[in-house]
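Practice problem 4.
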């Protein structure tokens, strides 16, 4: 489509950014089409620090086996491979990096960008990005999907999803990916305290009432706080406090 940076420019542009970064993100693999960048990362002999991005992703998946809408050539689909250490921390970092890139893109428009724990990024109450962390071969595969150019959604997502373009932002997927990588690398080097403060700034769940499922168990109550490195603290109707880990908790009602 006219006006968009062609795929042929992605590799060199992303590589140039990675080369300038102080941390461990170094190699990039650009795929014209893949079912899921998560699967591509498993199958491509990747090592920690590799970045896999797709021009088109056809069978993306979300947390808990949910489907991630086909990006077509409209969305960001990327996976970053990292050492599988402190996955709860990585989960928070993925959300922060995506949220910060979206906030930057939205600088000129009216958009309230925040994170619904653990790492759904919402803009004006609609989902604009999601993060999936999977562990394989001693690595954490951090999958990030961001809605950029989409203008319409399947009926079931219609009033729950949005894209940068729908918010009035004119940008390109390459810019968004680069901003994600810059913020990801910065966040990886930050202290837990900094990450917790940054998360608190974007936190959309604090002080809300919600119901959560952890395996077969359901907890309903008031969200007291998000401890970025531990999980979510919820006080149930009986006044009992629960810690809910990001990896195994879903929000069933809020
Ligand atoms: C969620 O919201 O549940 C997480 C969505 C994660 C989607 C991204 S797109 C790139 C990567 N590849 C996938 O198959 N999933 C993630």
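Answer key:
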């Amino acid at each position: 489509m006219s006006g968009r940076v062609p795929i042929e420019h992605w590799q060199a542009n992303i590589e140039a950014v990675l080369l300038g970064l102080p941390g461990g993100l170094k190699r990039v693999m650009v795929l014209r089409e893949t079912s899921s960048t998560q699967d591509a990362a498993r199958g491509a002999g990747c090592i920690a620090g590799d970045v896999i991005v797709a021009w088109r992703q056809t069978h993306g998946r979300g947390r808990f086996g949910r489907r991630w809408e086909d990006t077509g050539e409209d969305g960001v689909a990327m996976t970053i491979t990292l050492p599988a250490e402190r996955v709860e921390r990585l989960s928070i970092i993925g959300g922060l990096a995506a949220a910060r890139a979206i906030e930057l893109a939205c600088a000129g428009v009216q958009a309230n960008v925040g994170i619904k724990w653990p790492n759904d990024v919402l803009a004006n109450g609609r989902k604009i990005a999601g993060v999936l962390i999977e562990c394989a071969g001693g690595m954490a595969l951090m999958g990030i999907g961001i809605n950029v150019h989409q203008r319409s959604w399947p009926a079931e997502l219609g009033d729950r999803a949005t894209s940068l373009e729908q918010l009035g932002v004119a940008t390109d997927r390459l810019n968004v990916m680069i901003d994600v990588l810059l913020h990801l690398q910065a966040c990886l080097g930050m202290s837990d305290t900094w990450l917790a403060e940054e998360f608190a700034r974007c936190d959309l769940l604090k002080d809300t009432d919600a119901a959560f499922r952890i395996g077969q168990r359901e907890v309903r109550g008031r969200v007291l706080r998000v401890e970025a490195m531990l999980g979510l603290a919820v006080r149930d109707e009986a006044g009992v406090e629960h810690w809910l880990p990001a990896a195994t908790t879903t929000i069933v009602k809020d």
